Amino acid sequence: MIKIVCTSCQKPLSLDETKLPMKEVTFPCPACKTKLAVDRRKLEGAAAPVPGASPDAGAPAAEEDEGFGAKALIVGNDSPALRQAAKLIGFQPVHMPTAQQARDYYMQEFPAVVILNPQQTTAPPLEAMQPIIALAPLDRRRSFFILISENLRTLDGNAAFLYGVNLVVAQKDLGAFQQIYRDASAYHDRLYAAMNSVTKVLGER
After folding, report:
1. At what angle do helices 177-204 and 80-88 cross, to 10 degrees?
2. pLDDT digit of tens for each residue in the chain (205 aa)?
Protein backbone atom coordinates (compact mmCIF):
# COMPACT_ATOMS: atom_id res chain seq x y z
CA MET A 1 0.00 0.00 0.00
CA ILE A 2 1.12 3.54 -0.70
CA LYS A 3 -0.02 6.72 1.00
CA ILE A 4 -0.70 10.04 -0.66
CA VAL A 5 -2.22 13.28 0.62
CA CYS A 6 -5.00 15.17 -1.17
CA THR A 7 -3.57 18.42 -2.48
CA SER A 8 -6.81 20.25 -1.67
CA CYS A 9 -8.17 19.01 1.70
CA GLN A 10 -4.97 17.31 2.95
CA LYS A 11 -6.80 14.05 3.64
CA PRO A 12 -4.38 11.07 3.74
CA LEU A 13 -5.32 8.30 1.31
CA SER A 14 -4.09 4.71 0.97
CA LEU A 15 -3.84 2.98 -2.41
CA ASP A 16 -2.93 -0.54 -3.44
CA GLU A 17 -0.28 0.22 -6.04
CA THR A 18 -0.40 -3.35 -7.39
CA LYS A 19 -3.84 -2.59 -8.84
CA LEU A 20 -2.71 0.52 -10.68
CA PRO A 21 -1.75 0.39 -14.38
CA MET A 22 1.77 1.37 -15.38
CA LYS A 23 0.77 4.89 -16.36
CA GLU A 24 -0.76 8.01 -14.88
CA VAL A 25 -4.35 7.56 -13.68
CA THR A 26 -6.78 10.01 -12.10
CA PHE A 27 -9.42 9.60 -9.41
CA PRO A 28 -11.52 11.85 -7.14
CA CYS A 29 -10.63 12.44 -3.51
CA PRO A 30 -13.39 10.68 -1.49
CA ALA A 31 -13.63 13.67 0.85
CA CYS A 32 -13.59 16.77 -1.36
CA LYS A 33 -13.83 15.30 -4.90
CA THR A 34 -10.68 17.08 -6.06
CA LYS A 35 -9.19 15.30 -9.06
CA LEU A 36 -5.90 13.63 -8.10
CA ALA A 37 -3.38 11.86 -10.30
CA VAL A 38 -1.00 9.00 -9.52
CA ASP A 39 1.70 7.55 -11.77
CA ARG A 40 2.79 4.09 -10.67
CA ARG A 41 6.03 4.45 -12.62
CA LYS A 42 7.09 7.23 -10.25
CA LEU A 43 6.25 5.33 -7.06
CA GLU A 44 9.31 3.08 -7.01
CA GLY A 45 10.98 4.52 -3.95
CA ALA A 46 8.43 6.47 -1.96
CA ALA A 47 4.92 7.80 -2.33
CA ALA A 48 4.31 11.52 -2.53
CA PRO A 49 1.33 13.79 -3.14
CA VAL A 50 0.68 14.10 -6.85
CA PRO A 51 -0.99 17.30 -8.13
CA GLY A 52 -4.17 17.07 -10.16
CA ALA A 53 -3.69 16.47 -13.85
CA SER A 54 -4.61 19.09 -16.42
CA PRO A 55 -7.79 18.34 -18.43
CA ASP A 56 -5.81 17.43 -21.54
CA ALA A 57 -3.07 15.38 -19.82
CA GLY A 58 -2.89 11.86 -21.18
CA ALA A 59 -5.47 10.19 -23.38
CA PRO A 60 -9.01 10.32 -21.92
CA ALA A 61 -10.14 7.31 -23.93
CA ALA A 62 -7.31 5.22 -22.53
CA GLU A 63 -8.16 6.27 -18.97
CA GLU A 64 -11.77 5.26 -19.44
CA ASP A 65 -10.77 1.86 -20.82
CA GLU A 66 -8.78 1.12 -17.67
CA GLY A 67 -11.97 1.12 -15.60
CA PHE A 68 -10.14 2.90 -12.75
CA GLY A 69 -11.98 5.39 -10.57
CA ALA A 70 -15.60 6.37 -10.07
CA LYS A 71 -17.74 6.78 -13.18
CA ALA A 72 -20.24 9.34 -14.43
CA LEU A 73 -22.76 7.80 -16.83
CA ILE A 74 -23.81 10.12 -19.67
CA VAL A 75 -27.13 9.06 -21.22
CA GLY A 76 -28.43 10.31 -24.58
CA ASN A 77 -26.47 12.98 -26.43
CA ASP A 78 -22.73 12.87 -25.88
CA SER A 79 -20.56 15.99 -26.03
CA PRO A 80 -17.03 17.10 -25.13
CA ALA A 81 -18.53 19.69 -22.75
CA LEU A 82 -20.36 17.01 -20.76
CA ARG A 83 -17.31 14.78 -20.63
CA GLN A 84 -15.23 17.68 -19.37
CA ALA A 85 -17.92 18.53 -16.79
CA ALA A 86 -17.79 14.95 -15.49
CA LYS A 87 -14.01 15.08 -15.20
CA LEU A 88 -14.12 18.42 -13.37
CA ILE A 89 -16.16 16.82 -10.57
CA GLY A 90 -13.76 13.89 -10.36
CA PHE A 91 -15.41 11.19 -12.45
CA GLN A 92 -14.53 9.26 -15.59
CA PRO A 93 -17.27 9.73 -18.23
CA VAL A 94 -18.96 6.67 -19.73
CA HIS A 95 -21.49 7.23 -22.53
CA MET A 96 -24.59 5.16 -23.32
CA PRO A 97 -26.72 6.42 -26.26
CA THR A 98 -30.03 4.91 -25.09
CA ALA A 99 -31.78 4.78 -21.74
CA GLN A 100 -32.15 0.99 -21.92
CA GLN A 101 -28.41 0.52 -22.49
CA ALA A 102 -27.81 2.93 -19.63
CA ARG A 103 -30.10 0.92 -17.35
CA ASP A 104 -28.26 -2.32 -18.16
CA TYR A 105 -24.93 -0.67 -17.40
CA TYR A 106 -26.30 0.99 -14.27
CA MET A 107 -27.57 -2.26 -12.76
CA GLN A 108 -24.10 -3.77 -13.14
CA GLU A 109 -21.84 -0.86 -12.20
CA PHE A 110 -23.97 1.59 -10.14
CA PRO A 111 -22.06 4.73 -11.24
CA ALA A 112 -21.91 7.55 -8.71
CA VAL A 113 -23.39 10.12 -11.10
CA VAL A 114 -25.88 9.79 -13.96
CA ILE A 115 -26.11 12.70 -16.42
CA LEU A 116 -29.22 12.68 -18.61
CA ASN A 117 -28.88 14.65 -21.84
CA PRO A 118 -31.98 13.87 -23.93
CA GLN A 119 -32.42 14.91 -27.55
CA GLN A 120 -35.34 17.04 -26.39
CA THR A 121 -36.64 17.87 -22.93
CA THR A 122 -40.32 17.00 -23.24
CA ALA A 123 -42.95 17.47 -20.55
CA PRO A 124 -42.58 15.13 -17.55
CA PRO A 125 -42.35 12.24 -17.32
CA LEU A 126 -39.41 12.19 -19.70
CA GLU A 127 -40.46 9.17 -21.75
CA ALA A 128 -37.16 8.75 -23.59
CA MET A 129 -35.33 8.35 -20.28
CA GLN A 130 -37.85 6.24 -18.36
CA PRO A 131 -35.82 3.00 -18.40
CA ILE A 132 -33.01 4.66 -16.46
CA ILE A 133 -35.21 6.94 -14.32
CA ALA A 134 -37.85 4.37 -13.31
CA LEU A 135 -35.61 2.31 -11.03
CA ALA A 136 -36.45 0.67 -7.73
CA PRO A 137 -35.98 3.27 -4.94
CA LEU A 138 -33.09 1.37 -3.34
CA ASP A 139 -31.23 1.20 -6.67
CA ARG A 140 -32.13 4.78 -7.56
CA ARG A 141 -30.64 6.18 -4.36
CA ARG A 142 -27.22 4.75 -5.16
CA SER A 143 -26.52 7.58 -7.62
CA PHE A 144 -26.93 11.31 -8.11
CA PHE A 145 -29.08 12.02 -11.19
CA ILE A 146 -28.60 15.21 -13.22
CA LEU A 147 -30.79 16.42 -16.10
CA ILE A 148 -29.18 18.69 -18.70
CA SER A 149 -31.71 20.87 -20.51
CA GLU A 150 -31.87 23.84 -22.85
CA ASN A 151 -35.25 25.06 -21.63
CA LEU A 152 -35.14 24.54 -17.85
CA ARG A 153 -33.52 26.67 -15.17
CA THR A 154 -30.46 25.51 -13.26
CA LEU A 155 -31.29 24.39 -9.70
CA ASP A 156 -35.03 24.35 -10.45
CA GLY A 157 -36.20 22.14 -7.59
CA ASN A 158 -39.75 21.74 -8.87
CA ALA A 159 -38.51 20.57 -12.27
CA ALA A 160 -36.07 18.18 -10.63
CA PHE A 161 -38.92 16.64 -8.63
CA LEU A 162 -41.22 16.32 -11.65
CA TYR A 163 -38.52 14.72 -13.80
CA GLY A 164 -37.34 12.40 -11.04
CA VAL A 165 -33.77 13.72 -10.82
CA ASN A 166 -31.64 15.29 -8.10
CA LEU A 167 -30.46 18.30 -10.09
CA VAL A 168 -31.37 20.27 -13.21
CA VAL A 169 -28.61 22.15 -15.06
CA ALA A 170 -29.23 24.44 -18.03
CA GLN A 171 -26.97 23.92 -21.04
CA LYS A 172 -25.82 27.54 -20.83
CA ASP A 173 -24.55 26.98 -17.27
CA LEU A 174 -22.24 24.03 -18.01
CA GLY A 175 -19.28 26.37 -17.58
CA ALA A 176 -20.14 26.60 -13.86
CA PHE A 177 -21.00 22.90 -13.56
CA GLN A 178 -18.34 22.10 -10.97
CA GLN A 179 -19.62 24.62 -8.40
CA ILE A 180 -23.27 23.86 -9.17
CA TYR A 181 -22.68 20.15 -8.59
CA ARG A 182 -20.77 20.69 -5.36
CA ASP A 183 -23.49 22.90 -3.90
CA ALA A 184 -26.31 20.56 -4.95
CA SER A 185 -24.45 17.44 -3.82
CA ALA A 186 -23.71 18.96 -0.41
CA TYR A 187 -27.38 19.90 0.02
CA HIS A 188 -28.42 16.40 -1.07
CA ASP A 189 -26.08 14.79 1.48
CA ARG A 190 -27.39 17.00 4.29
CA LEU A 191 -30.98 16.24 3.33
CA TYR A 192 -30.47 12.48 3.32
CA ALA A 193 -28.47 12.60 6.56
CA ALA A 194 -31.43 14.31 8.24
CA MET A 195 -33.92 11.86 6.72
CA ASN A 196 -31.85 8.87 7.79
CA SER A 197 -31.62 10.23 11.34
CA VAL A 198 -35.40 10.59 11.54
CA THR A 199 -35.91 7.11 10.10
CA LYS A 200 -33.50 5.65 12.64
CA VAL A 201 -35.28 7.36 15.54
CA LEU A 202 -38.69 6.17 14.33
CA GLY A 203 -37.34 2.66 13.92
CA GLU A 204 -36.16 2.58 17.54
CA ARG A 205 -39.59 3.43 18.92
Report:
1. 60
2. 577 777 777 777 777 667 677 777 777 777 677 777 887 777 654 444 444 444 443 333 334 434 557 999 999 999 999 999 999 999 999 999 999 999 999 999 999 999 999 999 999 999 999 999 999 999 999 999 999 999 999 999 999 999 999 999 999 999 999 999 999 999 888 876 666 665 566 666 6
Per-domain residue ranges of the chain:
1-60, 70-193
Q: What are phi and psi of 56, to 5 degrees?
A: -100, 15
Find the DSSP H helices in the chain: 60-66, 80-88, 99-109, 130-133, 137-140, 157-163, 177-204
Backbone angles phi, psi at 196, to 5 degrees: -65, -35
- CATH placement of domain 70-193: 3.40.50.2300
pTM of the model: 0.65
